Amino acid sequence: MAESKSLSMGGITCDLCYEQTKQFCNSCQVNLCDDCVRKHRGELRPLSHDIVPFLDRELRLVPPPCQEHPGQRCQAHCQQCQTPVCTACVTGPHGGHCTVGLTKIFEEIKQKIKNDTREIEDRIIQYYLEKEVETENTISKVMEEIKEVEHEKDEQRRIWHQEVDSIFDKIDSLYQDLTGMKLSPLRTQQAKIRSIILDLTKRVQQNKDILKSNTFPVDNQRISKSIQYRFPPENGTMKMPSFKVQTIGGDDLSIELGDFKAKLTQHSLTGLSLKANTVPITTRRRMDKVTVIASISVRYSFLHSIACVGTDEAWIRGENKYITRVDILGSSKETVRTLGLYRPSGISVTNLGELVYSDNKMRTVYIVRCGAIERLIKTPDEYYPEEVCCTRSGDILVHMRSTVAIKLIVKRRNKIVRYHDLKMTQEIKNDEHGNLLLKEGLGPLFMTENINGDICISDTNAQVVVAVDKCGNVQFRYEGKSYGKQEAFSPGYIVTDSLGEVILTDRDNDCLHILDQNGQFLMIVNDCGLERPYGLSVDSKGRLWVALPDSREIKVIQYLTAV
Questions:
Q1: Domain 284-562 in CATH 1.20.140.10
Q2: Among the listed residues 303, 352, 339, 306, the one whose alpha carbon sits nearest the alpha carbon of residue 325
Q3: What single-letter DSSP state applies at residue 217?
Q4: What whole-number distance in Å separates Cα of residue 218 and Cα of residue 214?
Q5: How high is the pLDDT of residue 283?
Q6: Cα 119 vs. chain centroid, distance in angstroms?
Q7: Which one, of 420, 383, 412, lies nearest residue 400 by Cα?
Q8: pLDDT at position 281 over 90
Q9: 12: which DSSP letter?
């Protein structure tokens, strides 16, 4: 395959430096200046090199070096072992095997790449582009259904007046849970489709680069990329439950959303007697004896936080910069590298399944959307964000701490701030009498929103759990329950479930405490091998995910059962 010798060398530079090329290595197909000839021979010793003047060069296949015999280049391809071989291999370990010339194999590989590239460009990429549009349309349809349900809900709430707020608080909780359950899988599938499109586009470019080159590909067994993407899974059916309102006999007004039902009965013309004939949001009750259904091993040196997303997955964080999404089988599904230099301070998940995390060094709360990290909230000067919580109602709660020196005494003040549509709408730091509600100190505050709108706070500095309503009035205080181990009460992470019950970890006593929504003690969970539990979250099936940092594992606990 000799090339015309009349081709000028002007503008052609050495492949090893920027000098004008004068020589050419036919063996390696490399342009060289006079000074780099020796360097080229030295770097690829002991392979032979056919160095000729540039105008006398020949364009030919570059055979790979033999892995078994240093200094030899492969001249053939062993069909039995599917590997390039040199002449010494043919008379040695590959003796008697059927071999063919490398040029023939190279042409077959190039033809395969051409066919693969054509299929990716003409069919597969187009198919995924159509699927992406289809998924986006499905998301838009679901969003429209959600908006219609929300509009109808708001109209009925106005009609039913303030007396039925408790009913609609439960409807809000179910509505937010359903929104996350419906949109989260669609957004996950959309992100995967976009990732596949980028991967296929990158493969097309790589294939084109190989087709332009005469260098034998080292790993030709993994070149094809189209097969694994030819038959992607179909979209699942995503349908919101209907929102129904019905007047019965002119006296009763009933309302339904999924499994939730409520009815108003009019007893006289002078007013409505509100008869809360409600069915619980979930037809579940607490089990007499809980069950561990999964134990998940993790690699984090200290497992801090868990934030469930959907049914069988959760985000987790430890002492490093990474936040990882794992499933109930222990498989790592996705990892996010945070923007700061240190570990994130807290994590949570929105109703749409989007990851939110705080960075106290950067004084910022971030959100992760389709793999991209965006700044969500910048805390005020002198305040640093610690733990975060995304509420059922769509708000974000942020624990903030400030450090103030007064007469050489350092005070670390804590407060919880509620953000609605990224605007600060509430500060929780004093009770209704103006007294300090949250104790000063370095300990974190863990918080959650209950179905009745109360904010339940686990204050690790005061070793107490306190709940406040939407106006900041204290609803209850819980200081622990004496039992078995008798260590001091050490409340940690806290969650609420669809029944309105409050669950929190007690690290020093190796257990969980369960309270009703009024702060009354219900039970202790201490028979599941919960050694120094720390992080805690609840998934959409009502199962508890408990982090055990000492043993580097997560236990998934079933404590609710169908009625």
A1: no
A2: 306
A3: P
A4: 12
A5: 52
A6: 32
A7: 383
A8: no
A9: -
Q: Who has greater pLDDT, 398 or 286? A: 398
pLDDT higher for 377 or 216? 377
Using one digit for the tens of pLDDT, what is the confidence trace for 293-334?
A: 999 998 887 888 999 998 899 999 988 899 999 999 999 999
- Cβ neighbours of residue 253 closer than 8 Å, sequence gap 6 or more: 160, 245, 246, 247, 263, 264, 266
Separation CA 546–CA 58 (nearest Å): 68
**313-322 pLDDT per residue, tens:** 999 998 889 9
119: its two tokens? 């299929």
Task: Enumerate residues 6+ apart whose C-beta is below 8 A from 250.
Answer: none
User: Which helix (H) or strand (E) element contains residue 361?
Assistant: none
Q: What are the tens digits of pLDDT across the range 352-386? A: 889 999 999 999 999 998 889 999 999 988 899 99
Tens of pLDDT, residues 534-547: 999 999 888 999 99
Handedness of CA 280, 285, 286, 292 (dihedral sign): negative
Q: Give mean pLDDT, residues 281-288.
A: 67
Query: Which pLDDT belongs to residue 218?
Result: 64
Q: What is the pLDDT of residues 333-352, one digit of tens each?
A: 999 999 988 899 999 999 88
- Look up residue 481 and give its two tokens: 């329950």
Q: Where are the beta strands (DSSP E) in 407-510?
A: 409-420, 423-428, 445-449, 455-459, 464-468, 474-478, 491-496, 502-506
**173 Cα distance to chain centroid:** 23
164 close to 158: Cβ distance less than 8 angstroms: no
Instruction: Give Cα 79 distance to the centre of its chain.
Output: 45
Alpha-carbon distances, residue 206 vs 38, 91, 298, 430, 551 (angstroms): 32, 36, 36, 62, 44
- Block residue for tokens 């989007």: 354
Instruction: Compute the distance between CA of residue 353 and CA of residue 347 in angstroms, rounded to an integer.
Output: 12
Class of domain 23-103 (CATH, top level): alpha beta
Residue pointed to by tokens 């006079």: 34
pTM of the entire predicted model: 0.56
For residue 279, the cross-strand partners are: 261
Mind giving me the DSSP string for 44-94?
TTTS---EEEGGG-B---BPPBPSSSTT-B--EEETTTTEEE-HHHHHTTT
String of DSSP letters for 363-420: TEEEEEETTEEEEEEEPPTTEEEEEEEE-TTS-EEEEEEEEEEETTEEEEEEEEEEEE
In tens, the pLDDT along 127-163 reads 999 999 999 999 999 988 888 888 887 777 676 665 5
Q: Which residues contact 286 (CB under 8 A, 6 or more apart)?
A: 499, 501, 514, 522, 523, 559, 560, 561
Q: Is 350 exposed, middle or buried (0-12, 13-18, 19+ CB in 10 A)?
A: buried
Length of the chain: 563
Average pLDDT over the chain, rounded to an integer: 83
Tokens of 416: 């919880």
Rounded to whole angstroms, what are the CA distances from 511 to 27, 427, 490, 530? 71, 31, 10, 6
